[in-house]
């Protein structure tokens, strides 16, 4: 019995890690607005939580670097209009 329980726990933890990896990816877009370069989060749910955390809608390079240091995969795309 204890071995089966241990195997069940290991399977659950590996499934949780797979889901965590997807949640650890954040997509951003860099956009020129009136000559200023602004960075916006493209993921709606993550954007709301990041706004709660930072108190701002746009981000800068040091914000992205801090997220990367925390283990998030940060992807930045440039939008050219």
Structure description:
With 81 residues, the chain is α+β, with helices and mostly antiparallel strands. It has one domain. It is 52% helix and 30% strand. It contains three helices and four strands; from the N terminus they run αββαβαβ. The chain has a four-stranded mixed β-sheet. It is globular and about 35 Å long. The N and C termini lie far apart (62 Å). The N terminus is likely disordered.
Uncertain segments are 1-17
Class inferred from helices and paired strands? alpha+beta
Q: Strands across the major sheet, in which order?
A: 3-2-1-4
Give the number of domains.
1
Give me the strand/helix succession: HEEHEHE
Q: How many DSSP helices?
A: 3
Strand % is 25-35%
Mean pLDDT: 77
Global morphology: globular
Q: Terminal Cα separation, in Å?
A: 62 Å
Q: What is the tally of beta strands?
A: 4
The helix content, as a percent range, equals: 40-55%
Biggest sheet features:
4 strands, mixed
Topology:
Layout: H1 2-23, E1 25-33, E2 36-41, H2 44-54, E3 58-59, H3 61-69, E4 73-79
Parallel strand pairs: 1-4
Antiparallel strand pairs: 1-2, 2-3
List keywords for this structure.
3 helices; 81 residues; alpha+beta; single chain
How is this structure best summarized?
This protein is α+β, with helices and mostly antiparallel strands. Helix content is 52%, strand content 30%. It has one domain.
